[in-house]
Amino acid sequence: MTDSVAIGETRLAVRGLQKDYALGAEPVRVLTGLDLSVRAGEMVAIMGPSGAGKTTLLNCIAGLDEVDAGEIEVAGQAMSGIAENRRTHVRREAIGMVFQFFNLIPTLNVRENVALPLQILRRRSSETAERVAAMIDRVGLARRAEHFPFQLSGGEMQLVSIARALVHEPPLLLADEPTGNVNPAAGRRIMDLLISLTREQGTAVVMVTHSPEHAAWADRICFLKDGVIANEFRHPESGRHQADDLKHIYERLLDLEI
Ligand SMILES: Nc1ncnc2c1ncn2[C@@H]1O[C@H](COP(=O)(O)OP(=O)(O)OP(=O)(O)O)[C@@H](O)[C@H]1O
Ligand SMILES: [Mg+2]
Description:
Elements: E1 10-23, E2 26-39, E3 43-47, H1 54-61, E4 69-74, E5 77-78, H2 84-94, E6 95-98, H3 110-120, H4 125-138, H5 154-166, E7 172-176, H6 184-201, E8 204-208, H7 212-215, E9 220-225, E10 228-234, H8 245-255
Helix pairs in contact: 3-4, 3-5, 4-5, 5-6
Bound molecules: adenosine-5'-triphosphate and magnesium ion (MG).
The site of adenosine-5'-triphosphate has 11 residues, from strand 1 and helix 1.
């Protein structure tokens, strides 16, 4: 990140995470004992080859998938070894999610899409309307509030999904290739907003990306390979985005054959 930001308590703790998928008769171990810890106000980028298990990792953290071994804690609450309805509860309260393909509800307009997390949490409606309008304004879409997803560009849809992911100020944000389907200018705007909003809210962020340029904005880059975090890159000067970071990131990607 460009300037120093208070890094706070641990918001995500993943220990010894194992995840298997049955591929025909053969179980395939995708995650083989992965450890990851992220603190409030910290942004961690995850890079790794296609099929390495990056989306699998986010799905396990979000409690969308059951883990085979290991532990996950989100904002001090267990996300592993608990029933699915309990995982859903923790996810709604404590996690915001942004996906590569936006995942907006096509039959709801921008305002209604952004309001969803607050409605699910049964927040008071007077509070909700104000908060939703403020978030839509913050991502620069005030004039599009009544529009439907099909009337927006990919970049605009992603801004809506960022507003929706952060409207309830979750302690943890998970983003899976948030800039994977937009043009470079829109990608830049998405990164700017992701960083400024999560800094303001002190959110812990885990962002999967294939873009070294976007990964370079994170406080730490974790390289996922062979089911674990095989390597980690931190900016040499803490909290500073260095011009030659990109060179180092490309070197690590080449070394790890990512
Ligand atoms: N529901 C599933 N059932 C069976 N196998 C799965 C399932 N989901 C993922 N896999 C397998 O797990 C492995 C990891 O998949 P994952 O989607 O996590 O990769 P990724 O790192 O996100 O890749 P990409 O960069 O292409 O998005 C792949 O081999 C994939 O085929
Ligand atoms: Mg993926």
